[in-house]
Amino acid sequence: MCRWVAWLGKPVFMEDLISRPEHSLIHQSRDAHCCKTAINADGVGVAWYGARPEPGIYKDTRPAWSDPNLLQIARQIAAPVFLAHVRASTGSATSYNNCHPFAVGRWSFMHNGMVGGFGKLRRRAEMGIDEDIYAHRYGATDSEAVFLTALGLGLDASPLDAMAHAVRQLEGMAAEIGATPGMRFTSCWSDGHTLYAARYASDAFAPSMYYQRSAEGTLIVSEPLDSDGGSWTEVPPNTAVIATQADFSVVPFMSDVATPNVVAQGEMPRTLSVTGA
Amino acid sequence: MCRWVAWLGKPVFMEDLISRPEHSLIHQSRDAHCCKTAINADGVGVAWYGARPEPGIYKDTRPAWSDPNLLQIARQIAAPVFLAHVRASTGSATSYNNCHPFAVGRWSFMHNGMVGGFGKLRRRAEMGIDEDIYAHRYGATDSEAVFLTALGLGLDASPLDAMAHAVRQLEGMAAEIGATPGMRFTSCWSDGHTLYAARYASDAFAPSMYYQRSAEGTLIVSEPLDSDGGSWTEVPPNTAVIATQADFSVVPFMSDVATPNVVAQGEMPRTLSVTGA
Amino acid sequence: MCRWVAWLGKPVFMEDLISRPEHSLIHQSRDAHCCKTAINADGVGVAWYGARPEPGIYKDTRPAWSDPNLLQIARQIAAPVFLAHVRASTGSATSYNNCHPFAVGRWSFMHNGMVGGFGKLRRRAEMGIDEDIYAHRYGATDSEAVFLTALGLGLDASPLDAMAHAVRQLEGMAAEIGATPGMRFTSCWSDGHTLYAARYASDAFAPSMYYQRSAEGTLIVSEPLDSDGGSWTEVPPNTAVIATQADFSVVPFMSDVATPNVVAQGEMPRTLSVTGA
Amino acid sequence: MCRWVAWLGKPVFMEDLISRPEHSLIHQSRDAHCCKTAINADGVGVAWYGARPEPGIYKDTRPAWSDPNLLQIARQIAAPVFLAHVRASTGSATSYNNCHPFAVGRWSFMHNGMVGGFGKLRRRAEMGIDEDIYAHRYGATDSEAVFLTALGLGLDASPLDAMAHAVRQLEGMAAEIGATPGMRFTSCWSDGHTLYAARYASDAFAPSMYYQRSAEGTLIVSEPLDSDGGSWTEVPPNTAVIATQADFSVVPFMSDVATPNVVAQGEMPRTLSVTGA
């Protein structure tokens, strides 16, 4: 389980959410409240939209609290849209390429949750990524696999639907090998103009997600940044939030997405045949 | 292109090859002579066989010359068999998982060379890795892909043949997309008892390889560790060297391995079909 | 506050203490019981005595639980004497040079505790290090300052006395600026033949220290490695433990060491005078 | 020897100087032309003046060419004033705290050169840093020592004079121990409004420095960023350049700064006396 915060609104310094609040993201990296793993010290990352159409990305494997570069960047950069994440690995290594947010073109993506049994189905999951997207498969996480799958399924054209179908595709693979729990997914993604966030699980334990709106903008988080419970709205499971500079909406997520007919596992070649040798 | 050294014989301190000679591996990391890239500063690694059947592995992304841990380990550890490598990336990122040597069970492997066009055929290459081996696909390099492919093709039973078939399999993929150069492969691998090293290229430019034998043991290198040219024997292309504590032999490599009938590219699903959504 | 373990006896694999026990050092790095800071993730290090008179040193800034090199070294290396440490910074940065153990020549040293007000008296403390030793001042920690001070005060000749005088010297500096708490010191040091460990504080809160003896050797720790409380002996404050392969003794520490007449703070030049310009 | 570039003028993206030109700073990190050490791979750093009075600092120990964070920051951030540096160590370790630029308050500083014999006079040099500044002594380099000495000598009030006196103070220490070469100093420093750069050596070998002016602003470098020699003006030794958004001047440096009467080495306590024990 990981912790994340995302902002869309007037430009704010990233440190105002990452290091300043009572229960800031850096504070959560040492002592998270709403998830089983209180320590989220397996990497940190931010994606911010500034002077370019594509986001700037800073990621590092150090714990957030001891990363001087993160503090500097968060203090210097004010952005109208940014995503920030601290990671607690559910299996894959602590490495730059396994840190969130992931970015391809103008899209960025971060995730809290897991694809059940991913260690066993990684090769299948990677085959489910579109060939044209595959060059962006840098790491080994289930999270990046969901994002790249969604890109191949049309994230550009249908940001919410493509993500839902990607989640269903990976969830289906987990179900085929009987993994329990299956999919847990509380994620946020953006193209720099719109912020999408969704909460879902195959079971009753979807990781938490909250938002807070003000005249300044919309803040979406995996857990509140302060103890003022009243100011935060919990997002129910099977629900997505969509925020732009002008609009805000809460919509169903996953409810109408059927399980895909994925290629059955038995039909996949275990390896390429080598003959004639 | 990368630089490497390997030892099998009486136990010697790794620093005797890594940091002490006139043209030691660390010296080569700053100023290699026999390859186009004089700087090999994209990671360093050693695999040594000591108290356990499986090798110990130390890898780091720092340049070899500024890595205090490497110097300490090389100074403290004497081993009868070890492999050491400094990396110059041919495309993939500088990360722990992309550093050589790679290890699975009792096997270790390191490589100098490239699979032509690997950026375009990585997904195919990864599909060519046996499913039971795939959990060991940690990085994104062509080198690790060759090693894991060989493991799936029976490296345990036929260390030289399985490697040759793996090389042919990847070479075939490169040929299919018309990559030039195709395969360049000067590698070394071991199970802790026998040291294998081979030199091969699809074209006339197989990366260099030399050995030096003494009463103490066998030393195999990508380029000589000193300027005493007379004491080093160059290994010709299409040739492998096999060394144990008792024996030493030079044998043909790749000459009788036909191109595999790999699954044609068109038959591969570009992506899993998602229907019913 | 930090956590540490030290061994002297028959050679044992470092992993048997670092990663294997129920409440191993790596486990303590995430969830220490006997100290205020449950997370000790600001660096890790080991010093082992093997084939050389001086120790081998491995240190890294990653959390211990995500450091593959640490696991490899701990699994491969069996040593008759070693010290291992996970760090929770009390102020100085997370960097290689601030990680414990520190080593000079055949000596190694690690520390749990603090010198009160060290941020304000670092320059004075560094002036208290002998000029011939100063080249070994690589980092900025109070711990390294204590060790280097002790080396200058004759650690070679009087390992326990020199350390006690170093502790008193730094404690005196802390007292002069009215720092509270003053000195907290639970440390272990070795020349490869004898293991020294001592527990002390200026106040009533000396950090905990325990030992366990068996036919195999002596194990000294900052907190027990398992929940079998009965097998561990707590070392009282103002007490040192001395272990060799043949002997073991528990002796007073600091009780007869008077406060040094350090050069009064006012006598120290604030800066070199620059005249004649 | 190191390589650096500095900019003051209209805001430009840092990548326009760091990674884009024919002979960009990153290119120089692999293949510098104007200095003995062609490889500058012992750390990289940038200081930029953006939304805050104090600069933002990004530093890392990776070679510049393999640092994805550096590329991202350089691509996203446009600044009216920035300093960028790639390091080739002259002795001290590769660590974050030894990377340039160094920053205290609104000041940043970077250096190419060396203080002769610094390994032997580091303790003296550190005693020459004002006590109030000493908390900013994070690393072990001669470069940082020059900067902090200058801060203590009044950099705020007299940016050029204070630096000259600091250089003379360190040069004097080197001379006292007969170090050859003594001081080599080609440095750049800024408070965010004015850019200062100076070239000096105790001998005839002051490291090179060039500038280029345009309607956009002033660019100062340790060696030209392209092969168009005609567009670059070499700064002679004993000369400083001062640039603001409105003005540009070239002035003498060091010519009227006498050697300071530093406290004679013999008068310095080798260590604090410890009596009464």
UniProtKB/TrEMBL annotation, chains A, B, C, D:
Keywords on record: Glutamine amidotransferase, Transferase
Domain of life: Bacteria
Domain annotation Glutamine amidotransferase type-2: ranges: 2-277
Gene3D superfamilies in the cross-refs: Glutamine Phosphoribosylpyrophosphate, subunit 1, domain 1 (3.60.20.10)
One protein family per Pfam: GATase_4
Molecular function via GO: transferase activity
PROSITE patterns: GATASE_TYPE_2
PANTHER family named among the record's database cross-references: GLUTAMINE AMIDOTRANSFERASE DUG3-RELATED
Name the UniProt record assigns to this protein: Glutamine amidotransferase
Organism taxonomic ancestry: Bacteria, Pseudomonadati, Pseudomonadota, Alphaproteobacteria, Rhodobacterales
